[in-house]
Write a structure and sequence with these properties.
By secondary structure, the protein is mainly alpha-helical. The protein contains 3 helices and 2 strands. A hairpin with a 2-residue loop joins strand 1 and strand 2. Keywords: Coiled coil.
């Protein structure tokens, strides 16, 4: 996917052409095919389905038109796949950003929780001390009431 991400797609005469294909020349490939057709056609390949069986009966120019059309369709399919890969990459980047934001929010909330827990413990200790002091004062009040009676 990193290789596909670096490919640049341009549109030339309505045909998607990859800019970053090393060692591939569309013009050279078409020229070689045209030369083979002029010399007597392409060699028979039984497993080659590029030109259907009726293609053997086509004229050389018709075969070239057929191959160019098939090439255009293939390039459009490739352009669509590259577009979808870029779209998925964008979506992945967005999700990674959201994940990072969520993790930062989680860390912030964890810090807040720990601060609140420490404050809760502090207030519990203060409450216990206040209760003890209150009990002591109540006992002192009871003792003073007995003295007064």
């Amino acid at each position: 996917s990193s290789k596909i991400r670096n490919l640049e797609v341009q549109s030339a005469d309505g045909v998607a052409v990859l800019e970053d294909c090393v060692g591939f020349s569309l013009t050279k490939t078409i020229s070689r095919i045209e030369e083979k057709l002029k010399k007597g056609g392409l060699p028979d390949c039984p497993d080659d389905d590029t030109i259907p069986s009726v293609g053997n009966e086509m004229a050389a120019e018709a075969q070239i038109r057929f191959l160019k059309a098939k090439l255009r369709v293939t390039q459009e399919d490739l352009a669509n796949v590259v577009f979808e890969c870029r779209k998925k990459d964008d979506e992945n980047r967005n999700l990674e950003t959201r994940l990072k934001d969520t993790e930062e929010e989680n860390a912030r909330l964890q810090h807040t929780i720990s601060m609140q827990q420490s404050q809760t413990e502090k207030y519990k200790v203060l409450s216990q001390e206040a209760n003890k002091k209150s009990e002591g004062l109540q006992q002192e009040v009871i003792a003073l009431e007995k003295v007064l009676q």
